[in-house]
Each structure stands twice: as C-alpha cells, then as structure tokens.
Amino acid sequence: MDDFDQSLQEFQLAAQARRSAAGWLDAFEAALASRDPTRIGALFHADSHWRDILAFTWHLTSVAGRDSIAVRLAAEQARTAAQGFHLLEGRKPPRQVKRLGVDSIEAIFEFTTADGRGAGLIRLSPAPDGDGAMKAWLISTTLEALHGHEERIGANRPTGAAYSRNFGGDNWADMRRKAAAYADREPAVLVIGAAQAGLSIAARLNQLGVDTLVVEQLPRIGDSWRKRYHSLALHNSIHLNHLPYMEFPPTWPKYIPKDMLGNWFEFYADAMGINCWTGTEFVGGTWDDTAKCWTARLKCADGSERVVRPRHLVFANGVSSYPMVPDLPGLEDFKGQILHSEGFDSGAGWEGKNALILGTGSSANDIALDLHSHGVNTTLVQRGSTTVVSIDPSARLNEAIWDEGGPLEDCDLIVSSATPPLIIKAYQSVTKRMLELDREMI
C-alpha cells in the first residue's frame, strides 16, 4: 500500500468513526429525553460501564450492566436535563482504537445539563447479533463547568482594570497582601496542606470566585518535598504531574527532582494568587449548625492562635507524611539508630556502617542505593517476592494514554472514564504485557 492509499484509508476510517459516534450521540440524546430505560438500554452492550463525575449524580459514581445503567440514567435525567450531545472540533477526534482487547470507536463529546457544561467519552463496538449496530460498552460523563460560575480564563479572563492606573489607591501588591490577611472577612473554604492537591483545588476555586485560604504547617510552600531524602526525584513522568492552568516548562526533565518541584509549588502559589499561610497548623474544628460554618482553630507561625469560620474544609495533607514504624519484637532493645524513610536525608556520614532496610518500595530502593554509594554495607529485607520491571517500555505502559498525544485535558478525561472493574482488568492486561516485554531481563 502506497502513502496515498494509506492516507485515503485512514481518512475513510476517521470519517466512519465520526459518523458512528455522532449517530450514537443523537440516538442517545433522544432516548435520554424519553426517560425510557428500555430505549436507553438498547444503545448499550449487556456488559457495559458508566462512570459519572458530578454531571448526573453529583458524586463519583460507577455503574455496571446495561439494565442498571439505563434505569439510573432515566431516573437522573429528570433533574439533570442533559442535552446538546455533540462532537467538538479541537478535542481528540473520534478514532478506531483497541482498549482492553476490544476494537472500538472512541469519541469525546460535550453536552449541557441544568447545572452546567459537561464532557464525556464513549467507546462503541458492533452488537454481537451481527446486525452491524454500534453499541456502547463504556460511557463517561463529567461536569466541567457550572452555569454562572465559569472559570475566569481565556475569553473570560479579568481585564486587570482593578489593578491598573489606580492612582492614590491600592495596587495589585497591596490588594494581594490584604486578601491574604483575611482581616475583614472569612474564607469560604479552608484547605489544609499546600502541596499538589491543596494548591490545585485552591487554584480552581479561585477561578470560580470561591474565596479560599490554604494553610501549610511547614515554613515554606514546597517544603513537603524539599525536606525529603536528598536523592529523591519523582517516580512517574512529568506529564502525569501538571497543575491546573500552568504546565511545567517543556525544558524540564521527564522525572522532576524534589527541590525543583518544591520551588515550582512556591512559584505556582504566587503566580496563581493563592492565599496561603505557612508555618500554620490546623489544630481542630467544630461545626456550627446554626451559622452553617466551621469554627477552625489555627496555630500560627508566631505561636498565636487564629480562629477562622469557613463554610467548607478540605483536607489535602497527603498520604506519605506520617511514618509508620512496625512494632517488632526486640526493636525497643536495639542499640543502633532506628529511622523511618520519612526522616532520612542522605547516606553521607554513614560510611563503614551496616544498614538494614525493611521493605523494597521506591523509597527503600532509592535509600539503599544512596547508602551503598556512600560506602554503607546495605541489606534490603522484604517479606514477599520482588517485582522488577523495566522503566521503558514496561513501566511506561501505565502512561500510554498521555504518550498518544493530544490535549492534556483529553488524556485525563480518557483515563478518568474507567470504572473500578475496568481499571483492574487494565492492570491485569498491562501486567501480562510487561511479562512479555521483560521476559529476557527477568
């Protein structure tokens, strides 16, 4: 097949995928409007999956099976009033793919509800009865914006008039200092923790006009990374770690060193205008049912206590900052140094000593190599067997969606469309493929 014939075939397949996806969405919208479970279910395979993120259920919801999906969609449509399902230029176009071993047409679509604007994903394959009808074995629906509360980005960005030529009044720096002080108002949301999750949600809420205060116990934003062990870099690649509105520079390494990441968080918070109090510990809070807000007590950097009354609390204090030391027989009698990986910095100064590391996770392997490089007699101990995979290509299989290219938001949408049963099936499939790819190494 020459280049022309191949291009023509690819064009025809793309056109066919677009027609199939558009036709299915038209039929789905009509069936949804009827709120007839039988009519809705006719568009799905018996073994199908639906993942909803706020759009229909106002929750993170997964439903499996044609009948269950049809009944739930019909019931939720009475309130949701979803309509306007359509393909959109600028997003990943409908295309032929193979997902979990199923040859499918995959398409991203958009729609509106009574509450806002949404996006979703469908995967279609022929019906098993051979009539050629394309039915969905996966659909996802995600609420991306609320009516009247659109993000202040793009054409909706602020003009900046409030900050410019304000002679005799406050300039931007003055306004930022006053906004962060909360001397004359209460935050609507209090976020505890100023790392990836805390900064991301604060940036999003700010662009929705929701007044958000972030508190961080450590002295500087980013210290949750700076204070980790000396040799640490991220173990997954850069495109899995972008923050909202500001991607990492294209010049950055694929695996980001910890101090680079910590400095970026500090820069990000400043650039995004996030109100953050560092050196501030969340001591506790109680819910005031009369005022419909929290009474949150904060211990500030100078030792004083400040009380704020937000309507919402968000805990973004991480999962890996709380060391768990097992209660092993005889451990209390050991005369050497006992250290959790959370408190490890560098193997410098340990030369000639013996070190025993319990566990072989990412941190354990990094620390073992660091100790060994400093002349430490290092032994790793693990209860079970050790799994070894290549970084490339095997470990990168879990990042394959992002490697396909296209807008980052579309890659994220595809990944978030999977329901728990499909996620498990995908990992099982990836594990089998890893065994094939790494057979010679293993």
What CATH calls the topology of the largest domain is FAD/NAD(P)-binding domain
Tell me the domain tally: 3
Instruction: Provide the residue-averaged pLDDT.
Output: 92
Strand content: 15-25%
- Strands, total number: 16
Q: Please give the CATH architecture of the largest domain.
A: 3-Layer(bba) Sandwich
**CATH homologous superfamily placement of the largest domain:** FAD/NAD(P)-binding domain
Helix content: 25-40%
- What is the helix/strand order? HHEEHEEEEEHEHEHHEEEEEEHEHHH
In short:
The protein is α/β, with parallel strands linked by helices and 442 residues long.
Structure commentary:
- The chain has 442 residues and is of the alpha/beta class.
- The chain folds into three domains: 3-146, Roll (Nuclear Transport Factor 2, Chain: A), CATH 3.10.450.50; 169-315, FAD/NAD(P)-binding domain (3-Layer(bba) Sandwich); 331-381, FAD/NAD(P)-binding domain (3-Layer(bba) Sandwich).
- It contains eleven helices and 16 strands.
- It has helices at 3-34, 37-41, 66-80, 172-181, 196-207, 223-226, 258-271, 362-373, 400-403, 408-416, 420-437; strands at 44-53, 60-64, 83-86, 95-99, 102-112, 116-126, 134-146, 189-192, 212-216, 275-278, 281-288, 293-299, 305-308, 312-315, 354-358, 377-381.
- The strands form four sheets. Strands 1, 2, 3, 4, 5, 6 and 7 form a seven-stranded mixed β-sheet that branches. The chain has a four-stranded parallel β-sheet with strand order 10-9-8-14. It has a three-stranded antiparallel β-sheet with strand order 11-12-13, with no helix packed on it.
- The longest helix has 32 residues, at 3-34.
- The relative contact order is 0.09.
